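Can't paste images in this forum, so I'm doing it all in text. The chain is below; anyone willing to post the predicted C-alpha cells underneath?
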Amino acid sequence: MKLYHISLNPRLTTLIPKKPKNGWVEYGIEDGVTKRVSFSPTIMGCVRGVDDYDGKGEVYYVYVPTSINQKYI
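Text version of the structure:
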C-alpha cells in the first residue's frame, strides 16, 4: 500500500513521532498523548488531516516513505 505524508519542511529525511497539537486534541476527539507520524493513502487525506489548513499561502511537501514497518501501521 502506498502511503503519503505532508510537511511544511522541504528537506524532511526522517519522520519523528510527535504528540499532535490541534483542535481535535483540544476538543477531546483525538488522543493528544500518543506520539505518532500521520500517513494517508491519498494526498487529500493528508491535507484533510492538517487541522489548521485553510488552503491559503502554505506550501506543503509530499513525501512517500521508502521504509515502513507494517507492524506499526
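The mean pLDDT is 84. DSSP finds two helices and two strands in the chain.
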